[in-house]
Amino acid sequence: MAAGRFPVHSDRMSDDGSGGHYYWCTRHHRVETDADVCPAKHVLGPYASAADAENALQQVRERNDAWDAEDARWAGEGR
User: Fold this and answer.
1) Is 47 among the domain residues?
2) What is the Cα–Cα distance from 72 to 50, expressed in whole angstroms?
3) Distance of CA 9 to the CA centre of its chain
4) How many Å apart are CA 69 and CA 16, to the nearest integer?
5) Domains of the chain: total
6) Considering only CA atoms, which of 26, 14, 24 is closest in space to residue 55?
7) Would you write out the chain's pLDDT as a tens digit for each of its 79 residues?
8) Is residue 54 part of a domain?
9) Three-state SS for 65?
10) This prediction's pTM
11) The domain containing residue 65 runs over which residues?
């Protein structure tokens, strides 16, 4: 390998063998696929299934709640 160069790892984030990704579009409030996906600033994902993409906002809420609780615990607010 030449000096200053490094290998690039480009595996897909979730390789379920389906060959496609699903996204939740925050602009259109629908599941989109690689074939019709909006610009990245409007989507969450990629997800391995349409069902996972459809539940993206619930997953975001759950993670935010968990992180808020952890922040409160860390700051000593939950004692």
Assistant:
1) yes
2) 34
3) 19
4) 32
5) 1
6) 24
7) 455 655 543 444 444 445 589 999 999 999 999 999 999 999 999 999 999 999 999 999 999 999 999 999 999 875 5
8) yes
9) helix
10) 0.65
11) 22-74
